[in-house]
Amino acid sequence: LAESALLAGMIVPGGIMVFAFAAMVATGQLALWPVLLMAIAGAMAGDSLGYWLGYRSRSSHAQLRIHRPFSNLPYLLGKADDFLARHGTRGIFFARFVGIMRSAVPRVAGMQAMGPAVFFSSSLLAAIGWALLHVLPGLAFGILLVITAHISHRLAVVLVLLSFSVWM
Questions:
Q1: Is the dihedral of CA 80, 9, 41, 142 positive or negative?
Q2: Distance from CA of residue 142 to its chain's centroid?
Q3: 145 with 23: CB under 8 angstroms?
């Protein structure tokens, strides 16, 4: 939710967190379905909050640019407008996978008064795809860690540290 609704993706790496929780599924610490459903619910909640804020304000871009977070990133609204104009309803789906567009496009869709049914159906499909894109590799990584730990605990630690180093 925070990653997509509040432009906090640099502070709250939702994708990395979902990946890590999915890796914990392989170790038996968590169950798969709750992790997957919570990832979908968080993505939907973030998009919905952005849409609602945009729909509620329906301000002109000039008025919205003076408010945070857009005051720090003045070009973002224009890019989100262009993105949504170029891709239409598919833009809602694509934005979920394009970093900073993830938070701006739902708000612009709300500002443009895109129909809620159209927005939420595209957003739900995107949330499901995004969750699967993070949960399945995380699950595979967790299985790899479990197998590696059976061979050598040191090798498993090296694998975790290497993965963390690459992420940093």
A1: positive
A2: 21
A3: yes
Q: Is the peptide bond before 69 cis (omega within 30 degrees of 0)?
A: yes
Q: How far apart are CA 57 and CA 41, in angstroms?
A: 24
pLDDT digits (tens, 9 = 90+) for 54-100: 888 776 555 555 555 566 666 777 777 787 888 888 889 988 888 77
- Distance CA(92)–CA(119), nearest Å, equals 7
C-beta of residue 36 within 8 angstroms of C-beta of residue 131: yes
Biggest alpha carbon–alpha carbon distance for the chain = 60
3-state DSSP assignment of residue 86 = helix
Q: Where are the alpha helices (DSSP H) in 27-152?
A: 32-57, 61-64, 76-87, 90-95, 101-111, 116-151
The single residue listed with the structure tokens 């239409």 is 88
Give the separation between CA 38 and CA 30, rounded to whole angstroms.
Answer: 12
The DSSP letter of residue 6 is: S
Amino acid 46 reads G
Give the contacts of 57 (CB within 8 A, at least 6 positions apart): 64, 110, 111
Torsion angle in degrees (nearest 10) through CA of 52, 59, 73, 119: 30
Interatomic CA distance for residues 51 and 47, integer angstroms: 6
Is pTM, for the whole model, over 0.70? yes
